[in-house]
Amino acid sequence: MGHRNNFDTLRLFAACNVLLQHAAFLQVPWPRPIPLLVAYTSGVPIFFIISGFLITGTFLRSDGDVVTFLRNRCLRIYPALWLNLAIVLALLVAFGALPLGALLNPDFLRYWTVILATGSDALANWLLPPYPFAWNDALPFLPVVALWTIALELGFYLIVPVIFLPPVLRYRWASVAVVLALTIYSHRLTSVTATDEVTRGINPLFYFWVFGIGSLFSLLWSRIDRLFRDKFILWALLYAEAIAFFGDQHGIVYDHPTLRSTVLTILLACCVMSAAFSWTNLSKLLAGTDLSYGIYLHHVPIVMLLHAFGWQGFPAAVLLIVATTIAAAATWRVIERPALRFKIRPARRPSNSAEDGRADGLESPACRAG
């Protein structure tokens, strides 16, 4: 039985989706079908769905070893994140938003420490007084706007060991019941709670329901995989029919879910899981290279750099794509891949998640970003 899958390809697709969304800041006049495609294949829910599937399987295969699990997660997240934040810091100084002498200011150090820990300026602004950067036309805001999901992802990493306590880990039905209950609670919380967008953006419970869908797929995969494996076209057609029937121009509104957006998110998850296990030879094209995290990290600073020099429209979009791809490839080769060599690999063991025969596949070089 093969261990190949397309998770790296799907993450690359999701990262490019996020890039296209933020390219709007460069006034790129995309043809009409592209914004609609971007709206209904939104990168953030795809990332969360894949993360739910892979992180659940990874934790269960670690036999509940929380220290090893969190150590490996930190090795995946922080090295490339800190490189990106060093680049952002250089931009702040270069374009006059932060005086060089302010780098040792205690207020700035406290503020930047929160961002180093979470990637989230929203969380830094929530915990501390907002730092008075000298914004200007070249650099009108902090170029970390895409990193808000990192704080949520870190929150998911902390939630997973809490919900998969040893008594729960012993039984598949208990694991499914706990994840399902928290997924329903998260969906209800997100649907009915009246709160500001900042609070939503820093609280992982508001988005766990999307992560939870992926987690449920992981827990049930050995029983349901035949419904999805090599059936991507069928699921894509069903998703397209649902969009045609009750979709609109707003796409998937996963942060304020309605019945419509919930159904569409579930169908998107079905498409993602089917795509991951259809035409798996596609995974060979990437040759174990994962550019998705680098694209996700670096595209906004490059957007700001292009904006600072007055680049707009399609020429700016081409430069954005090329420069971001080069930066992502360099980051993977120099930072990410070397850091992953320090991960502790759990011993092979039976799992109540994905099939035993696929355990190595979910932690292979093509998937270890999960």
Automatic annotation (TrEMBL):
GO terms, molecular function: acyltransferase activity, transferring groups other than amino-acyl groups
Q: Does the keyword Transferase apply?
A: yes
Q: Which domain of life is it from?
A: Bacteria
- Any one Pfam family here would be Acyl_transf_3
- Print the keywords alphabetically: Acyltransferase, Membrane, Transferase, Transmembrane, Transmembrane helix
Q: Membrane-crossing residues? A: 36-60, 81-104, 141-164, 171-189, 201-220, 232-253, 259-279, 291-310, 316-335
Residues forming the Acyltransferase domain are: 5-332
Cellular component (GO) terms are: membrane
BP GO terms, sorted: polysaccharide biosynthetic process
**UniProt region (Disordered), positions on chain:** 349-370
Family annotation (InterPro entries): Acyl_transf_3_dom, Acyltransferase_3
Q: What is this protein called?
A: Acyltransferase
Identify the species of origin. Answer: Bradyrhizobium quebecense
